[in-house]
TrEMBL record:
Its EC number is 4.1.1.11. The lineage of its organism: Bacteria, Pseudomonadati, Bacteroidota, Flavobacteriia, Flavobacteriales. It holds the Pfam family Asp_decarbox. One of its GO terms (biological process) is pantothenate biosynthetic process. Belongs to the PanD family. It catalyses: L-aspartate + H(+) = beta-alanine + CO2. InterPro entries: Asp_de-COase-like_dom_sf (IPR009010), Asp_decarbox (IPR003190). This is Aspartate 1-decarboxylase. It comes from the Bacteria. Its main location: cytoplasm.
Length: 116
C-alpha cells in the first residue's frame, strides 16, 4: 500500500505579491525552494492563514534571497500582499517507508521570508 505524506513545508511566509496577469503558479525565493526540498515545477498546496483559502498550483523559482512569494494567475485572487501562507508539497511513499520518512520543514522569518 502507498500513502501520501508531507514531503516539504515552508511554514508561515508572507506574500510579497499577487500577479493576476501571469500565466499561473507561485514564485518562491530560490533559497526557500532549496531549503525545503521543493523542485521548480513541483505541485504545491497553498494554505492562506488570513482567509482560510486553500489551492493547488506549481512552484517556480524566484530570485535567490529575495524573499519573494508571489501568487500568479488565478491564484492571485486568493491572496493579498501581506497575507501569511503555508506552502506544502506531498509525496507518495510505501506504507513502511512512510513510517520513518522525515519531511523537509522550514520556518522562515515572517517579516522578510529569510532563513535567518
Amino acid at each position: 500500500m502507498q500513502i501520501q505524506v508531507v514531503k516539504s513545508k515552508i511554514h508561515r511566509v508572507t506574500v510579497t505579491g499577487a500577479d493576476l496577469n501571469y500565466i499561473g503558479s507561485i514564485t518562491i525565493d530560490e533559497a526557500l525552494l532549496e531549503a525545503s526540498n521543493i523542485l521548480e515545477g513541483e505541485k504545491v498546496a497553498i494554505v492562506n492563514i488570513n482567509n482560510g483559502e486553500r489551492l493547488e498550483t506549481y512552484a517556480i523559482k524566484g530570485n535567490r534571497n529575495s524573499g519573494e512569494i508571489t501568487l500568479n494567475g488565478p491564484a492571485a485572487r486568493k491572496v493579498q500582499k501581506g497575507d501569511i501562507i503555508i506552502i506544502i508539497a506531498y509525496g507518495i511513499l510505501d506504507f513502511e517507508e512512510a513510517k520513518t520518512f522525515k519531511p523537509s520543514l522550514i520556518f522562515p522569518n515572517e517579516k522578510d521570508n529569510s532563513l535567518t
